[in-house]
UniProtKB/TrEMBL annotation:
One of its GO terms (molecular function) is UDP-glucose 4-epimerase activity. Keywords: Carbohydrate metabolism, Isomerase, NAD. This is UDP-glucose 4-epimerase. The lineage of its organism: Bacteria, Pseudomonadati, Pseudomonadota, Gammaproteobacteria, Oceanospirillales. Pathway: Carbohydrate metabolism; galactose metabolism. Belongs to the NAD(P)-dependent epimerase/dehydratase family. Residues 5-326 form the NAD(P)-binding domain. Its EC number is 5.1.3.2. The gene is galE. It comes from Marinomonas maritima. Homodimer.
Amino acid sequence: MKTILVTGGTGFIGSHTCVELLNQSYDVVIVDNLCNSHSEVLNRIVSITDKSATFYEVDLLDRVALNTVFTKYQIDAVIHFAGLKAVGESTHIPLSYYHNNLTGTLILLDVMANHGVFDLVFSSSAAVYGDDNSAPYQEHFPLSSTSPYGRTKVMIEQFLQDAFVSDPRWSIALLRYFNPVGAHPSGLIGEDANAISTNLMSFITQVAVGQRKFLSVFGGDYPTADGTGVRDYIHVVDLALGHIKALEKLASQTVKSIDAYNLGTGQGSSVLDVIQTFEKASNRVIPYEIMPRRSGDIAESYANPQKAANELGWKVQFSLETMCRDAWNWQSKNPNGYHS
Ligand code: NAD
Ligand code: UD1
């Protein structure tokens, strides 16, 4: 049985990935400092899988504590989710973002190498495609970013490329997520309402439960079919399964590599498409108002996911309707997230 260390494993995407790892009989060790997640997630993971993940409340910046975890377990591979992720916040406190995300990753890489662990799956983002490329995005496109958050992803990808060139024992998958939404179909885990999130689906669900009167649609004059922004929404369970495929690839290859993969559906949906689909899935009306564009937004972003299909054997299963249904199921069962 393989043991996977998951940094940020109590977070939104991390918790769904831990469920899929346990379902596929991996042993899971989580390190998370709980700065944007809740320990109740651990009980919910047990309810879903009948198995438990081992948890350490550890900050990646605490090298001694991290080293202790690696000393206790024979880790086969690491999935590295831990990081700060709010784009707007990153423009206000950029140095904290650089310190947490970059220094945290450097310490993790050093501790991994000291313990002979070289298989790594890293959470990157479609944010690395910046605003100079046009959709559908392909992995070989030039990278840039419009925010300090996005720049931490571009920089970490560069760290990892350099580490790989310097030491061929590294085996790395850079997973570039598009727009993760939805929740586990059980309604037991999802995106915590108390965590910092400025994403569309969080605002839609807040309107649906009456915490907000209406949704502000940022821009109705984009050069898209209905004038609103287009994104590639992906069900968080599909995303979680992409990590298992990436781990399988790292474990199976004899010649080590570093590769980037887009994890998206390849389909763009506008803000109005999402509102209408959510209304159908939840049987609720979502009042909205068209507002000025949000600064830093682009008209459209969607993936070409062919490389992940060809090389990882990964394909999405869930539709936008299922994403909306599961997001609503989670939100209505847990209106205050894990504090409900
Ligand atoms: P999340 O905030 O729910 O999870 C991140 C977890 O990392 C949290 O539990 C937090 O407590 C933990 N963490 C942060 N800094 C830490 C540190 N120094 N030490 C230990 N733990 C720390 O976010 P998420 O949505 O699950 O995202 C996971 C990863 O995927 C992040 O790296 C994020 O940048 C990336 N990503 C997310 C999205 C998205 O829309 N959710 C899109 C693209 C990429
Ligand atoms: C945001 C981040 C991006 C990150 C991505 C996935 C910004 C500027 N970018 O992008 O770096 O990789 O999340 O986590 O924050 N919208 C509304 N009303 C709202 C909220 C959003 O109309 O209240 C619109 C946006 O203008 C956009 C779409 O909905 O057209 C999706 O927005 P969001 O969920 O924030 O994702 P991204 O803009 O793709």
